[in-house]
Specification:
The protein is mainly α. Helices cover about 70% and strands about 5% of the residues. The protein contains 18 helices and two strands. It has helices spanning about 1-15, 25-30, 35-40, 50-60, 65-75, 95-110, 115-125, 130-140, 145-155, 165-175, 180-195, 200-210, 215-230, 235-250, 250-265, 270-280, 285-300, 305-325; strands at about 20-25, 80-85. The protein has a two-stranded antiparallel sheet with strand order 1-2. α13 packs antiparallel against α14 (about 235-250), α14 packs antiparallel against α15 and α15 runs antiparallel to α16 (about 270-280).
Length: about 325
């Protein structure tokens, strides 16, 4: 009976499961009250795109637990309503494979990946369709389903329209599976098949080399990728791996220079700010670590790594202050 009463209250705030919310990060930053485990689990998933059905699916929580957690977040004014999930367009029953493929591609471009997955899967079940298989691989990558991604790309490979793009994505899937030799062979094929002028393919080659412990090759590929971004700064992911390679080769000065440049070029990246905070901590610069972690938390209060780094920085600042105030006994 109590659960029924609670659900009736929840329904007043959440009348439909197709509602989409985003986080009010500024309010969440000011919160000092503990969140429930269910609320903590939902925070990284509330992205302004998933509706409540998506939150239930991706969190693994039940409908009631998700509803109750969202109800509490709404009452605390931590959520902003975005709207409702878009209605999936439909085609007549006798639509041609080309029309169905175009619909599926449009759904994919619109970010409606579950709906696109259903349409592409129906196409490949009826006949060989390299375009549909390739997109199934892309969707599997987004869903972090690495083995299905490999299978889909391998199915699409014989008749793929863009070999280099397919090889790039296949190498990424192999890398995530930890099959590094396969990833290396595939990304090398992508480079020799016309991908050497693509900075993202050069970057993927650098990542594979780094994972294999070939740091010199990783540096060369990172440099090649950097030279190909001529009209703008490299993306955040380039800075992330360039700084990581610097750290792995004990070049802490270069690591700091890269992360400082990274956060200047990409001030919106909480991950880079977290990396900068961690680098400051390694050097014993607790004030720098605190500043970086606080900036990161203002962007992504749900990231536990930022909270840990901020806590470590504050402890370091406190120890330094106590040491400075201690009487000199000499």
């Amino acid at each position: 009976a109590r659960r029924v009463d609670e659900w009736s209250l929840i329904e007043k705030k959440i009348p439909s499961f197709d509602v989409v919310f985003s986080l009010d990060r500024s309010r969440l930053m000011l919160n000092r009250d503990p969140l429930s485990p269910e609320q903590e689990a939902l925070l990284p998933l509330i992205d302004g795109h998933r509706d409540i059905n998506g939150l239930i699916r991706d969190s693994g929580l039940g409908e009631f637990d998700v509803g109750k957690a969202l109800y509490g977040l709404l009452n605390a004014s931590f959520l902003l309503p975005v709207g409702r999930k878009r209605t999936t367009p439909t085609l007549p029953r006798n639509a041609s494979p080309l029309e169905r493929r175009e619909l599926a591609s449009a759904l994919y471009r619109a970010g409606m990946h579950d709906e696109a997955l259903r349409e592409f899967r129906a196409l490949v079940e009826e006949a060989a369709d390299p375009v549909a298989s390739f997109h199934l691989g892309l969707i599997a990558l987004r869903q972090k389903e690495w083995a299905p991604a490999v299978n889909a790309f391998m199915t699409a490979a014989p008749n793929a329209s863009s070999k280099t793009t397919l090889l790039h994505n296949l190498a990424l899937a192999y890398e995530q599976l930890g099959q590094m030799e396969k990833a290396r062979l595939v990304i090398e094929r992508a480079l020799t098949s016309g991908g050497s002028e693509d900075p993202l393919i050069q970057l993927q080659a650098a990542v594979v080399a780094m994972r294999l412990g070939d740091y010199q090759a990783a540096k060369v590929r990172l440099s090649e990728a950097r030279s190909l971004w001529t009209s703008s700064a490299p993306p955040a992911v380039w800075f992330h791996y360039a700084a990581q390679v610097a750290a792995l080769t004990d070049d802490s000065d270069r690591e700091m220079l890269l992360l400082a440049a990274a956060t200047e070029s990409h001030p919106e990246s909480a991950v880079l700010l977290n990396n900068l905070a961690a680098a400051h901590l390694k050097r014993g610069d607790y004030h720098g670590a605190r500043d970086a972690a606080e900036k990161g938390l203002a962007l992504a209060p749900e990231l536990p790594q930022l909270r840990r780094n901020l806590s470590a920085a504050l402890e370091g600042v406190s120890r330094a202050d106590r040491s400075a105030q201690a009487p000199n006994r000499s």
